[in-house]
Write a structure and sequence with these properties.
Number of helices: 3
Helix content: 40-55%
Order of helices and strands: HHH
Radius of gyration: 15 Å
Strand content: under 5%
């Protein structure tokens, strides 16, 4: 699928294109799941966590 954009990504989630809103929701879900795993000690926290890095960095 091709998305034609205006070159601007709105910071307002209600105006964001469906695809962007969808990925933002997915990222939030991953973030929550990841935090639960860390608090349950199922995965060992990486250096990124202590440095306050993003979840995506440790997932890649």
């Amino acid at each position: 699928m091709l998305f034609k954009g205006t070159g601007k990504i709105s910071s307002n989630p209600t105006v964001a294109p469906p695809a962007i809103a969808f990925f933002q929701r997915q990222l939030k879900m991953l973030d929550v799941m990841h935090r639960q795993l860390v608090t349950n000690k199922k995965i060992r926290p990486h250096q990124e966590h202590q440095a306050g890095g993003t979840v995506t960095a440790s997932l890649l």
